[in-house]
Amino acid sequence: MSDTADTSFILYGQSFHSRLLLGTSRYPSPAILEAAVRRAQPAMVTASLRRQGSNTAQVQDAGASFWQLLKQLNVPVLPNTAGCMSVQEAITTAQMAREVFETPWIKLELIGDDYTLQPDTLNLVQAADTLIKDGFHVLPYCTEDLVLCQRLVDVGCQAVMPWAAPIGTGRGPANPYAMQVLRERLDVPLIVDAGLGRPSHACTVMEWGFDGVLLNTAVALAQDPVAMAGAFADAVRAGRSAHLAGAMAEQTAAQPSTPTLGTPFWHHAS
What we know:
This protein is of the alpha/beta class. The protein has a single domain (10-245), classed as Aldolase class I (TIM Barrel, Alpha-Beta Barrel), CATH 3.20.20. Helix content is 39%, strand content 16%. The chain contains nine helices and twelve strands. The strands form four sheets. A five-stranded parallel sheet has the order 5-4-3-12-11. Strands 6-9-10 form a three-stranded parallel sheet. A two-stranded antiparallel sheet has the order 1-2. Helix 3 (87-101) runs parallel beside helix 4 and helix 7 (199-207) packs parallel to helix 9 (225-245). The termini are far apart.
């Protein structure tokens, strides 16, 4: 997807001011989370319904406090189905999240392996299809597999979220070739979700033409999460600008970069 001029980031017909989405878990404190979100100014923040899922008064109070913080941030919430390992569990969680968060948006996570947290590529399309028919704006977390992503688009996903590497690894793009092929072949917004660890990783995938990134661990577990949130926001903008500017073609041999204005004349005394 190439553009000659930057435009707003549009998902399911809605325009967003930023191409960065930010997770809300694993921060050292709610205050640091709040400061990081305010520094990054993301398009959306993700939240899991499971934060509300306990019968103990202590955790219920924590959930209420977290929900109040999300409201104070005044940033659109993207609920997710984190931890779901069956189609029905993901659908039920999404439906509950729609009621709790009062939004049709859902980040669809359907986990197939609880060690690598790899998406269930065999059942993800079915879950996405069911949720889209139920009126959800589905952003599916998936691998960089081209056929899987195309099937998600075929059932109505207007954007897909391939990983760069397994969740929380911070390794950066593990399969650059597949990711670049994915960008070349699909004409829908692609948001890199999971596996980015450094701002340079975010800048790189944005230079390739990806439309946005979703981060959590790389910011939350940084030594200074607030500063790192700002660094990633800057990197996303820089990568997008570089993509639009058009990088020079790689060369196999050195090319002179200093212009030759004339041939110097050397006078030799006789």
